[in-house]
Amino acid sequence: MKTHHASLLIAAVAGLAFVAVPRAVAAAPNIPHVQFSDQAIASQANANNADAAQAGAIVQALNNEPALKNSKITVSVENGSALLTGAALTKAQSQKAREIAVAAMGGDASKVTSIILNDET
Q: Does domain 42-118 sit in CATH 3.30.1340?
């Protein structure tokens, strides 16, 4: 304890200041809690082309999946290939959305591109 006081005295004489910051405050910035609205999980980007029915089927399947709650995903299908964009809270939600889209596209993973961002990456 005397060493601690001696360090403070030396610092005071030298014109230095010590600031004690609790580790919990320094390590975790103050991030506000985000509340999402209860809206549809997925929406369709292209409603006027020949692939609209396929996009609609993917949107319906995504909206029926409770594990995707609070995700926001846009589905676009063009020339038989699906594109998923949007945001999810977890990597698992992003992966689940892609799995659902692949199933809706007949199980062909090469027909689905997912660019769903999540808070874990």
A: yes
